[in-house]
Amino acid sequence: MNMRRQNAEGYGSRCDRWIRAIGLTFTGILLVAASSHAGALNVSWTAPTKNTEGSSLVDPALYRVYYSTSASPCPGSNFVQVAASTLIPSPNQTVSLQLTGLATGSTYRVSVTAVDTDGKESACSAVASAVAEVNSEVAPTGPVSFGTVTIGSSATRTFTVQSTHTGTTTGTASVPAPFSIDSGSPFTLLGTGATAAVTVRFTPTSTAAASTSVSFTANGDTQSRLVTGIGTTAADTKPPLPPATSAGPPQSPHAIEPSNDADDPRAVIDWLLDRSSSRGR
C-alpha cells in the first residue's frame, strides 16, 4: 500500500485515497446445533489490489476483521487481525478466517480494513451479517450411563463427533477420572458430514457413584456430555439362586407299613398300640 504522503500537487495523502473496494463475503455458514454452546462464523473476502485512485496496492501488512452484534462494527473494540500473505496481492485472492467463541443464534455484523506496513488503516469495508452457529455436533446429545461396573474391570461407550461446515475441524476430547478417553482424540474432520468416533472408558476404583462431563473441543467451540457410572465389588455380585424343584407330597408320620418281624421296632410299636387299645375297651 503506497500510503506515503503525496506532494503538494497530490491533493491529500494516500490514506485519503485508500482501497477502492473490499468484497466481503461469507462462505460455509455453519448450522445450528445447540444454543448453549459457543458459536462460530467462517469469514472470507477478496483481497484488494487497487487504491481508490486506481494505483496498484503494493504494501499491505495485515487485515483487521471487526465484528459485533451492533449495526456498525467498524471501527470498534472487537476485531481480529490476519497477516497479509504478500505485499502485492494477486487478483481474486481470497483471505479467510474463522471467528469463534460467539453467541450461538446471534446475528453478527462484520467489516474489514487493511493496514499497511506503516500502520495506516484503510476505511471500513461494507458490512456483512450472518448468524453464528456451532461447527460440530456430538451424539448422543443426552446423559450417558455406564451402568454398574465391577472394580478391577471397565466399560466403554462411544460418542460421534460430526462436522457441520465445509472447512476443516480439528479437536480433542477430555474427561476426569475415573473416566478416560480410550480412543478417537485428537480428531480431524474434513468437510460437512465428516465424523469421528470417540470412545470413553469407565474404570471404577470405589463403590461410589461417579458423575462428570466429557468435553469435546473443536475449532474453539466446546460441548459437554454428562456421563455416569457406579462401581461395585465382586462380593456384591451374588450368584443366581438354583431353579426351584417340585417336591413330592409330605408323608404322614403314621403312614408306616405293618411288620411281622419280631426284631423290627415297628412290630414292637404295633404290639404296644394293640395292647393299649385292648385295655381301653
Account of the protein in words:
The chain is mainly beta and 281 residues long. The protein has two domains: 8-131, Immunoglobulin-like (Sandwich), CATH 2.60.40.10; 136-235, Immunoglobulins (Immunoglobulin-like). The protein contains one helix and 16 strands. It has one helix at residues 265-279, and strands at residues 24-26, 38-46, 60-68, 79-83, 94-103, 107-116, 128-131, 136-139, 144-150, 155-163, 168-174, 179-183, 187-190, 195-202, 209-218, 221-232. The strands form four sheets. It has a five-stranded mixed sheet with strand order 9-16-15-11-13, with no helix packed on it. Strands 4-3-6-7 form a four-stranded antiparallel sheet, with no helix packed on it. Strand 15 and strand 16 (221-232) form a beta hairpin. The longest helix has 15 residues, at 265-279. The protein is rod-shaped, with a radius of gyration of 41 Å.
Task: Summarize the topology.
Elements lengths: L23 E3 L11 E9 L13 E9 L10 E5 L10 E10 L3 E10 L11 E4 L4 E4 L4 E7 L4 E9 L4 E7 L4 E5 L3 E4 L4 E8 L6 E10 L2 E12 L32 H15 L2
Parallel strand pairs: 9-16
Antiparallel strand pairs: 1-2, 2-5, 3-4, 3-6, 6-7, 8-10, 10-14, 11-13, 11-15, 12-14, 15-16
